[in-house]
Design goal:
The complex is a heterodimer of chains A (228) and B (299). Chain A has seven helices and ten strands. With 228 residues, chain A is of the alpha/beta class. In chain A, helix 6 links the parallel strand 7 and strand 8 (189-193). Chain A is globular, with a radius of gyration of 17 Å. The two termini of chain A are 28 Å apart. Chain B is of the alpha+beta class and 299 residues long. Chain B contains nine helices and four strands. Chain B has a four-stranded antiparallel β-sheet with strand order 2-3-1-4. Chain B is elongated and about 100 Å long. The mean pLDDT of chain B is 82. Classes of the chains: A alpha/beta (228), B alpha+beta (299). The A-B interface holds A 49, 51, 71-72, 75-79, 81, 83, 89, 91, 93, 102-103, 105-108, 110-111, 150, 154 and B 2, 4-5, 8, 19, 203-204, 206-215, 217, 299.
């Protein structure tokens, strides 16, 4: 569950990223966060990643109050959260298998657990045959599926996707969104920050619209254009 | 840190070293060069120090006694001189013994001293060894206080002693400056090498942070990498000094007019140099990697 109460982020230069935002996302929900550039989407993602600290208000994710989370607790918070970025952020010198296994290695998982979990999650995203390939040998869609596999291999209760389809053609983008929906169906809370109007419109999921750091619309089964 | 994390850390460090092998080799060679210079300074310092100790032990104060002083007075004076602190050794040389020694020194030309046996101009004397150059003044002052007990003159190597002390102090300062300067250069070199390795893996560090790696887990391989560079950077100069020490010292013994002096043995120098270079190498490695990775961890 994600709860924001009066959440405010003012950057050092005085710019307001998020302005007294309050919202609640329950476990198992699929939510799109939309808005034009400068609306506060990126700030919200950074706050959720605990890359930046709120200036005011509360942000509670999986029971952790991020405004009081210490630097030492941060890694353990992030382990309960999967992240997918627009630019995939895969390690170029590691194979697809190794890229996914890496997320388990760094949390100290045993080799047996890694050998068991990685192939099944690669099968889930349809990449079992590409396990030995390197990222630069894959298409954009396949790279993003690898990133998704890496994000969910630790079975996090919450998946955060920041513009996951931004670098993909429309067909491939749909593959990724369908995968995200599959992951959501398995019980993971999914939050997608996006500009992809078509996808948001057709998915008929909950849509949170931000403008100038404020929540201007929050609609169950909404669409991108509802904001205008 | 459990065994899995430890083996991951060590494996990653070696992987990174091999992957960036050119850069690793360059930094090991540069560090080796710096530590080699440190080793040379160290060998010089150790041997100069040893030289000083030997020279100190060779320097003595000669006290010439008044003509016609009685045996009782001589014994009294010897007793008083013996009571002066820091006199490590004292030898009484009678005027007859002094003449014999003089003759022996002159070897073939000793005949020019013929005829002096009956009218020996050389006085009785006391030769004192002083325990350390620092106590020279004290002993000299004490001897001046005993002049009334039959001392004619006091002859000392005071100026030589002072010059020796000045040279010794100067060399110590130069040695310390050389070692400190090379130490700073080494830190900068290692810092840059690790920074390149860290920059190459910036994305990886970033991803590691996002998927929940602790700072210690991320830092580990870089620190081990720095330590390995430090150890290898110390082994090469140690091997070089080990191979070169005896030949160079023998060459110096043969070619310099200090034949009577001894140099420190290779075993002695190594017993000090080995822990010094390993400690300095590893510390430089750890410092370089810690500094260069720090700012990348703030994600």
């Amino acid at each position: 569950m994600i709860v924001a109460e009066n959440l405010t982020k003012i950057y050092d230069n005085g710019t307001k990223g998020i302005d007294h935002l309050s919202l609640r996302i329950d476990n198992g929900e699929f939510v799109f966060v939309v808005g034009s550039s400068g609306s506060g989407k990126t700030t919200l993602v950074k706050l959720l990643l605990r890359e930046i600290m709120p200036t005011e208000g509360k942000l509670i994710v999986n029971g952790e109050d991020l405004s009081v989370l210490t630097r030492g607790q941060m890694p353990f918070y992030r382990r309960r959260m999967g992240v997918v970025f627009q630019d995939f952020r895969l390690l170029p010198n590691k194979t697809i298998y190794e890229n996914v296994a890496f997320a388990m290695q760094i949390v100290g998982a045993s080799n047996r657990d890694i050998r068991r979990s990685v192939p099944s999650v690669l099968a889930l995203v349809g990449l079992q045959r590409k396990a030995k390939a390197y990222p630069d040998q894959l298409s954009g869609g396949e790279q993003q599926r690898t990133a998704l596999a890496r994000a969910i291999v630790g079975k996090p209760p919450f998946l955060l996707a920041d513009e996951p389809t931004g670098n993909l053609d429309p067909d491939t983008a749909w593959d990724i969104v369908t995968l995200l929906e599959d992951i959501n169906d398995r019980g993971t809370t999914v939050l997608v920050a996006t500009h992809a109007k078509d996808i948001v419109d057709q998915m008929k999921k909950r849509v949170i619209t931000l403008r100038n750091g404020n929540l201007v619309r929050d609609i169950e089964k909404g669409g991108y254009r509802d904001e205008f | 840190m459990n065994f899995r994390s430890f083996s991951y850390t060590v494996m990653e460090a070696f992987r990174s070293l091999i992957k960036n092998r050119l850069m690793s080799a360059a930094s090991i060679i540069t560090l080796s060069s710096c530590l080699f210079m440190v080793s040379i300074s160290f060998c010089l310092a150790v041997n100069l120090d040893y030289l000083m100790i030997q020279m100190e032990s060779m320097m003595s104060i000669t006290v010439y006694l008044e003509d016609g002083i009685s045996v009782e007075n001589i014994n009294d004076l010897i007793e008083r001189v013996n009571a002066i602190p820091f006199v490590s050794h004292m030898e009484f040389i009678s005027s007859e013994q002094a003449l014999e020694r003089f003759k022996a020194d002159l070897e073939d030309s000793a005949h020019i001293l013929d005829g002096l046996d009956k009218d020996n101009p050389l006085p009785n004397s006391l030769v004192l060894d002083i325990d350390g150059l620092d106590h020279w003044d004290y002993v000299e002052n004490s001897l001046n206080g005993l002049k009334e007990y039959g001392i004619e003159t006091i002859q000392h190597g005071r100026q030589a002693a002072n010059a020796l002390m000045t040279i010794n102090n100067l060399l110590r300062i130069i040695g310390a400056l050389v070692i400190a300067g090379l130490g700073v250069i080494s830190v900068v070199i290692i810092f840059n090498t690790i920074r390149i390795a860290v920059n190459n893996r910036k994305i990886e560090i970033n991803i590691m942070k996002y998927v929940g790696a602790t700072d210690a887990f991320i830092r580990g391989p870089f620190i081990v990498e720095g330590m390995i560079i430090g150890i290898l950077g110390a082994v090469i100069p140690l091997a070089a000094v080990y191979a070169l020490y005896d030949p160079v010292m023998n060459f110096l013994l043969d070619s310099l007019p200090v034949m009577d002096f001894l140099f420190r043995s290779r075993v002695y120098v190594f017993s000090l140099l080995t822990p010094l270079l390993f400690t300095v190498g590893v510390m430089i490695g750890i410092a370089g990697s810690t500094i260069s990775i720090r700012r990348h961890l703030n994600v």
